[in-house]
Amino acid sequence: MTILLVLISIALLVILIVWAKLNPFLAFLISSIVAGFLLGLPADQIAGSVQKGMGGLLGDLVVVIVMGAMLGKLVAESGAAQRIAGFLMKLFGKNRITWAMSLTGLIVGIPLFYNVGFVLLVPLAFTVAYQYRLSAVYVGIPLLAALSVTHGFLPPHPSPAALVAQFDANMGLTLLYGLLITIPTVALAGPVFAKSLKNIQAKPLETFQAEVREESELPGIANSLITALLPVFLLIATTVISLGLPESSPLRPLFGFLGDPGVVMLVSVLYATYSLGIRRKTSMKKLMDSYTQATKDIAMILLIVAGAGALKQIFTDSGVSQEIADGLKDWPIHPLILAWTITAIIRVCVGSATVAGLTTAGIIAPIIHTMNVDPNLLVLSIGAGSLMFSHFNDAGFWMYKEFFNLSIKDTIKTWSLMETLVAIIGLIGVLILDFLI
């Protein structure tokens, strides 16, 4: 009966988002309150549980997500992203153009939120396709595969960062494992899959052609790469060093502090402010205005994360999590596959990768100690499932269709199939790592 009540709560969330077209934050709040009543929480405790869940999750993530938005905004507006893309095009040449686009999406996609990366880089892909007389879909899909994977798999993007916090995982290790899975996933769902798309013709609207800056206006390639990838370098370096230090080492607390995701993102933003801003004669006022706009861009993401925290706390305080654990422990299915499957189903129903991932986390986080699974791999498994088969209820589906000016049929054959490949290959990569680690 308890499992049924949880399913009713999740179904209500789906209905409110898909059918009622309610904002996901409001949908999470309503579903959390209804779930509290259904699961027998005293009425005077429900509001407290909601507030505790929202505050507890946001407390770990506000700095990471906000700083990530600021860094991504500056990388985009300074021209660093264009510099990286142009450099890789020249380095790889026409014959390996799809590999260059994948690498561009991977590097630029780490600091940029998905929608920003899409709007920024897809027009550049159109310019490249026109220059080399290639199909825009053939050039664009490898880029979008990389952007999608970084969005679903890698911190400091909101969903994986939130999952790390909920599962008490290690962000540096999650990032390291995520990169190991990301590279083959992007290669197969990007350049390899794109070989079958050469004959799909797209006529992108002129509105979406890139406004390419002059070379003299762009930052240097070394500056662009170092600044964009600094969070990755710092997280991985401090994690590896900490793992190599003995427990009694007096340096462990120092590297524990330096490796904290919030500290890493703060250092990265301060460095970017100098390297891509002050050093290039950009006024402090303009930089701060850009950062203010960046925080506005991700305000709703923060609220959705908070709403997911509320639902998780209701499940925890009602005691339903333990009952779910007891019900699942005898299932003849690997926990990583189970988490992926739950996420994939919610993703197909709701459309939002972030909502799908965080909803699954709300169900699983309180019982992770009973699952005998690496929490870092669980983050990646859910991340892979959250990208499963994007279709009509996903904003990304329509952005791709309209930017590339494709039919519904061709959009499903290219975009939806690419997202499905990312989800399945990602899961296979997680299971291989689970076997090896």
From TrEMBL:
CC per GO annotation: plasma membrane
UniProt entry tagged with the keyword Amino-acid biosynthesis: no
Location in or out of the cell: Cell membrane
InterPro entries: Glcn_transporter
Transmembrane segments: 30-50, 57-76, 96-122, 134-154, 174-194, 225-245, 257-277, 298-316, 336-365, 377-400, 420-436
Coiled coil: none
UniProt keyword annotations, A-Z: Cell membrane, Membrane, Transmembrane, Transmembrane helix, Transport
Record keyword Membrane present: yes
A GO molecular-function annotation: gluconate transmembrane transporter activity
Main localization, broad class: membrane
Annotated membrane topology: Multi-pass membrane protein
Superkingdom, natural source: Bacteria
Family under the similarity heading: Belongs to the GntP permease family.
Stored NCBIfam families: gntP
Protein name in UniProt: TRAP transporter large permease subunit
